[in-house]
Amino acid sequence: MATPAAWAAACEKFHASLSLSQVESQKDPENDPYKSKYRARELLQEVKALLGPAADEDEDEEVGDSGGSGGPDAEEGPVVEHAGAGAEPSARAVRLAAVELQLGLNHIDTEELAAGEEHLQNCLRLVRRSRLEPAAVSLHLQAQNNLGILWSERDEIETAQTYLESAEALYNQYMKEIGNPPLDPNEHFLTEEEKLTEQERSRRFEKAYTHTLYYLAQVYQHLEMIEKAAQYCHTTLKRQLEYSGYHPVEWAINAATLSQYYINKQCFMESRHCLSAASVIFSQAEQIPSTEDTETEQDRQDLRQRKAEIARCWIKYCLNLLQNAQAALEDNIGELDLDKQSELKAQRKREEDEKENGRKKVVLFGTSDVCDAILAMEEKVMCAPPLDFREAREVFLVGQSYVCEAKEYFQVDGYITDHIEIVQDHSSLFKVLAFFEEDYERRCKMHKRRVDMLEPLTVDLNPQYYLLINRQLQFELAHTYYEMMDLKVAIANRLEELDSHTIKKINSLAQSAIKFYELFLDSLRDPNKVFPEQLGEDVLRPALVAKFHIARLYGKLITSDGRKELENMQTSLEYYMFLVLYCEKFPEAARAVETELELSKEMAGLLPTKMERLRAKLTPFT
Questions:
Q1: What average pLDDT does the segment 375-386 reach?
Q2: Region entry Disordered: which residue ranges (predicted)?
């Protein structure tokens, strides 16, 4: 650069271009959305002309034609060893690189990806040899970040991965070998008096690296490297809180989403931590004062929706925690195993001292203030699977409170699918709580609550548009009535003599179960009402289980009419035989219903003899 006046002009134009891109562009009219971006680009080109070519640009043996080559060359792999890296860059080279970086971002913002890629590649070439120097490292890292994003948008995920992993390796090597807060890319156009503090430089560099990890998490998700994606997501969220580089709502949703990964891995401590953090950080967004000018009705609606989505993640947490506990405690007929319960309680007592140590292994989010709020939130619900009704009820009540919160937004009018799923989760919470209840009458009332919330949903649901949901509800209702009938039979077996009210109740529950199983089976019929010869894999087990349960239900109906009893036995036999004959015709189906098939064969052998005896009793020899 020839004169101080030219340098001053370049600085002024550079900062004017940043203002146009970052501030003025927000005010551009809809019919000319890139007006400020194009003006910013013109200024950047003028800055580039004022700077002139870098002294060593033409001497760089790596310049070649890698710009727009379709991906990083061999030198752009993970940065481990760099021949020549660490060479002091010329002031003109890093200033030009800063301009090329801005030009690259500008073209990407205006959807000119090829031109954007070329400018970002120019930025890399200008500082490639000096990428480990404080003046150049942030330029190189941010160019790689943006090339990673660009290739992700082109759906070239593996190319994006290479750029982003290279940026990650560069950061790690710089921090290991140098460690000083590097210059921010925009500092190259500031006077010495205007330069940033080391603290601010460090914050911006760490923020850029956090972006690297954020985009890597998405890349690993696309590549189905789920565990690695979760690890990077967790680290990103932690860093965003540490360096205050986050939007509360977006952060909270990402943390709540991560909690679902931990649920699937049965890592309930980590899942609870993510959800507690999500709730605490989301509350920051709710507390931000708003005015009519800055917040629209749509903004408020979006906020309510996000809150409901976090509530749904809490529901899944509570439900999965309870179901995990049930799986650990049930015996081979699905009842509470008291020996297992005692064993697990003793084991928990032995591990009490280790519990705190385990807590410390979880990567905690946030600064001390935020951490305290998160830990306080965690105290509201346990993360160890409950071992008795009291503990199960505490988890249930937390889940139920979030059901109410989620339903406030996801109402049946407008969000019917979401609403039904929430109600189904509510039903499942009652179902698993009933497992812990020892009193059969109280357990039966819990199942009645399930019926009361599910049955109204089937009334107005159009089966043509909601076939799968209808089937789910029909099958769940049938099974709920079936469980209630079983409980009433168990209660009746303790009585010395059956009264008419008990008999009527058992029959009513059995008939309701049959009704919904039949509705489910009818939904499988074709338009001519013909039942399929071979069942699809997705409905094979439910359909055969429905047939088996109907067979058993007809056997449970109580009647003093011998002919009606014989008729019920005949119907029961027909359903058992359907299962046996179907599995003979399609042997692969037997694997889906091994227990039911074995019992059906047994009953198919016993019932004819029983029916003959009843016939003989009804028509005695004369």
A1: 93
A2: 20-39, 49-87
Over residues 316-321, the mean pLDDT reads 98
From residue 128, alpha-carbon distances to 86, 138, 139, 164, 522 in Å are: 9, 12, 10, 16, 69
Rounded Cα–Cα distance for residues 279 and 71 (Å): 40
pLDDT tier for residue 461 given thresholds of 50, 70 and 90: confident
**Alpha carbon distances (Å) from 474 to 413, 520, 522, 546, 571:** 21, 6, 11, 11, 21
Q: What's the Cα-to-Cα distance from 515 to each of 102, 444, 478, 521, 531, rounded to whole Å?
A: 68, 19, 7, 10, 17
Residue 225 main-chain phi, psi, to 5 deg:
-90, 70
Q: Which contacts qualify for 174-181: CB closer than 8 Å, 24 or more apart?
A: 174/132, 174/137, 177/132, 178/132, 178/133, 178/134, 178/137, 180/134, 181/134, 181/205
Average pLDDT, whole number, for the chain?
89
The SS3 call for residue 599 is: helix
Question: For position 67, what pLDDT does the model report?
Answer: 40
Residue 163's nearest CA partner among 186, 139, 140 is: 140
The answer to whether residue 69 scores a pLDDT higher than 50 is no
* Rounded CA separation 280/377 (Å): 8
For the chain, domain boundaries? 4-56+74-266, 267-287+299-347+359-438
3-state secondary structure 74-107: HHHCCCCCCCCCCCCCCHHHHHHHHHHHHHHHHH
b/e map 295-324, b = 16+ CB within 10 Å:
eeeeeeeebeebbbbbbbbbbbbbbbbbbb
> Among 146, 159, 168, which residue's Cα sits nearest to residue 101?
146
Single pTM value for the model? 0.83
Q: Which CATH superfamily is domain 4-56+74-266 in?
A: Tetratricopeptide repeat domain (1.25.40.10)
Across 143-147, 393-397, 495-499, 618-622, least confident range: 618-622
CA distance to 20, 247, 260, per residue, from 400 (Å):
50, 29, 18
Which two tokens mark 105?
């971002």
What is the per-residue pLDDT across 37-68, written as a single tens digit (0 to 9) for each?
A: 999 999 999 999 998 876 554 444 333 333 44
Q: Cα dihedral sign for 615, 618, 619, 620?
A: positive
User: H-type helices in 154-225, by residue range?
Assistant: 157-177, 198-222
